[in-house]
Amino acid sequence: MTAIAGTAGGAVAAPRVSPAATFRHTMTLSWRSLVQIKHNPMELLDLSVQPVMFLLLFTYVFGGAIAGSTGDYLQFALPGLVAQNMLFASMTTAVGLNTDITKGVFDRLRSLPIARSAPLAGRIVADTLKQVWAFALFLGLGLVLGFRVQTGLIGVAGALAVLLAFALAMSWVAVLVGLRASDQEKVQILMFSLMMPITFTSNAFVRTDTMPTWLQKWVEVNPVSHLSDAVRGLLSGGPVAEHAGISLLWAVGITVVFAPLSIRAFRDRV
């Protein structure tokens, strides 16, 4: 039932949208974002080229020097590369959201009888689902190159679940950057400046004990290190519970901090 509240000036309040309708609107706009790939294949290409490039470069250029053999390094580094790619892929959310706003897409959507949160939620859901493609591509190419999953399908599903939970949390950071930045160039600069240091000062690519003592202290608490170790344990065997638990706690903390900031920025901007 649409609730209409009159005011002294004769204004009419926005119609209330039920949770079920909000969910439908979000899924519809999420599907819209995914279908756009058919018309703009470059969106999927961005999620395809980077995983292939990083996996081949790190395995065959750095693998022998770091681990002694490319096979050993691939087994160690692939989970970290998956985590790194997930963080870098969050730039897609920031850039896409900024583009939709600057081009007036959100203004057109506001004229439709849909939940106000649906365009933002739809973008987040769609970009999170795109991470599944990147994960499958990484794992498929890794298997071709010699990576071996030691934990079966349950381990693969667990790794994907942890990655998606963290990706969903990081999407709120991307949303905030996309809303606050004035154009795509600033979005890319801000996101790259954030993701590069936090990724490369982790154990995603090299073991912690090979780093200087002062850096090890940060690496041990870096959320990307825990995420990489969780994915490593879920795919290759080894400790899982502690690292997965800490990764999920980081995801919750990031969401608690950045979701309200992003929603406020969304209301201010849109």
From TrEMBL:
Belongs to the ABC-2 integral membrane protein family. This is Transport permease protein. GO terms for molecular function: ABC-type transporter activity. Keywords: Antibiotic resistance, Cell membrane, Membrane, Transmembrane, Transmembrane helix, Transport. It is found in: Cell membrane; Membrane. GO terms for cellular component: ATP-binding cassette (ABC) transporter complex. Pfam families: ABC2_membrane. The chain crosses the membrane at residues 44-67, 132-150, 156-177, 189-206, 244-266. The keyword Transport applies. InterPro entries: ABC2_TM, ABC2_TM_bact-type, ABC_2_transport, Nod_factor_ABC_transporter. It is a multi-pass membrane protein. One of its GO terms (biological process) is response to antibiotic. Residues 42-269 form the ABC transmembrane type-2 domain. The keyword Membrane applies.
